[in-house]
Amino acid sequence: MARRIPPAAHPLWDAAALALGALYPLGFAPFAWRALPPLLLAALWWLLLDASGRRGLWRAGLFGVGAFGVGVSWVHHSLYVFGGAPWAVAAALAAGLVLACAAFPVAAAALWRVAAAGRRPLVSAAAFAAAWVLAEWLRGWLFSGFPWLYLGYAQLDTPLAGYLPVFGVWGASLAAALAGLAALAALRERGGGRWAALGLAAAVLAAGAVLGRIEWTRPAGAPIYAVLVQGAIGQDRKLRPEALGSSLDRYLSLSEGFWQADVMVWPETAVPAFAFQVEPFLDLVEQRLRAAGGRLVTGIFSYDRATGAFHNSLLVLGDAERALYHKQRLVPFGEYLPLRDWLRVFERWIDIPRSDLRPAPGPQGPVPVGGRPVAMGICYEAAYPWIWRAQLPEAEYLLTVSNDAWFGDSLAPHQHLEIARVRAVESGRDLLRATNDGISAAVAADGRVRARSRQFVPEVLETTVQPRRGATPFVRWGALPALGVCLLLLAAARRSPRRPSC
User: Fold this and answer.
1) Tens of pLDDT along 206-255?
2) Distance from C-alpha of 1 to C-alpha of 12, rounded to nearest angstrom
3) Cβ proximity of 45 and 60 under 8 Å
């Protein structure tokens, strides 16, 4: 007797949606099973096709809970281990973030149902891809944004990476979603529709491979000598006042013999004090740099006397004048407490030093380092493409620093490097990345990692960075083309004729 397949409303398929989501992070670093996320997204679409409206939204939410519950589990670690929050409080905050992120797949499913309910499979699949990408974009903006685990990040090292410099990470997300969904839609199409679905999937892959062969920017002179210094100072002592002297001594010691570098980079808050508190130390560093003819970019805290604001900053030493970059996107519950008047109760349980910082007052242009304009970003800012676009095409390379010690031996440092690699490809620029305990890296304009450090050990990474000029299509036009295609797909689906069933 043939085994009976459970009906569409069976709870087994709800559990399947949760499991599909839990597998989704395997497509990202450090696992990098690149083909998996588009296929999982297509499987989610399949589970929604025959479900009722409410059941479909529930399954989309379960997929989101699985994806973010696994993919950003490191949030609990940082709050509990280093934030000093009780386990339950850290779990509640982490769960709140997961549920907030899971709301966006629900929104995508709702938008898809409005636009494409009852349409032929290929039309429905294309509309679901568009709705998913629009939800990703919205997640990067709403309530300060959390642009993590975008489908496009998983397209590095695949033919679909060719879409990154043209349409940005959202364009790569759309291409991946279209390829995976169209391939699965072919199983529900008939006759010519099946070939059309397979043809669309093949065309998306082929176009990405062709775009990936185009060099959108050009070298601007010879490569320059760069040094990335990784201090590997434990987060449990990094911001303690009594550890300041030993921290500074470690960076001085690691930097000996490299003061002549065209650009040396110390990580985020490598100098864990305000600049006015350590002026003698900064003067000493500048003396060594000028004697050797080098430049240093270091993370430091700064104080703006005019506004009374404290900033997480990057300071450039060794040039005729010091230059500063202030962080623009701060980490909620890490560098500031959102909705402070309402959430003040959490201050009892979370002990994070320097958690009352202020963002830069507005967008910033590139910062000069040794006469070359450099696009800069600090930590979490690597995930915001528009921060980098605002500094391009003037900037000749990208520089980002971080303190991923907050996340321990988790997925976060690997995901963070992956995100930074995408910024390099989008902009057609080489990138330097220095972190406190790894992963420090030099990334080429095509996303290849030229050199990388080990994690959790003090290390000095000697490398080069190639200055480049020119503008990729993404630098010129930003997200508008990708979002425009998404809106056109949804509008076309809405206007297409209905079918009795898919």
Assistant:
1) 999 999 999 999 999 999 999 999 999 987 787 788 889 999 999 999 99
2) 21
3) no
Residue 485 has pLDDT above 90, yes or no: yes
What is the three-class DSSP state of 363?
coil
Instruction: Kindly report the average pLDDT of the chain as a whole number.
Output: 92
Mean per-residue pLDDT for 481-500? 92
Alpha-carbon separation of residue 409 from 29, 381, 406 (angstroms): 13, 21, 9
Mean pLDDT of 160-187: 98
Residue 250 DSSP one-character state: H
- pLDDT band at 501, cuts 50/70/90? very low
Supply the DSSP symbol for 456: S
Task: Say if residue 115's pLDDT is above 70.
Answer: yes
- What is the rounded distance in angstroms from the CA atom of residue 304 to the CA atom of residue 282? 17
Backbone angles phi, psi at 265, to 5 degrees: -125, 125
* Structural domain spans, the chain: 12-215+478-495, 219-339+350-471
Per CATH, the homologous superfamily of domain 219-339+350-471 is Carbon-nitrogen hydrolase (3.60.110.10)
Rounded Cα distance, 472 and 388, in Å? 13
Averaged over 285-314, what is the pLDDT? 95
Concatenated DSSP letters for 141-208?
TGGG----S-GGGGGTTSGGGGGHHHHHHHHHHHHHHHHHHHHHHTTT--THHHHHHHHHHHHHHHHH
Q: Which residues contact 191 (CB under 8 A, 6 or more apart)?
A: none
Q: Half-sphere exposure of residue 398, counting CA atoms within 13 Å on the CB side?
A: 35
Residues classed as catalytic: 268, 327, 379
Q: Which residues contact 428 (CB under 8 A, 6 or more apart)?
A: 165, 215, 216, 217, 445, 468, 470, 471, 472, 475
**How big is the chain by its Cα radius of gyration, in Å?**
24
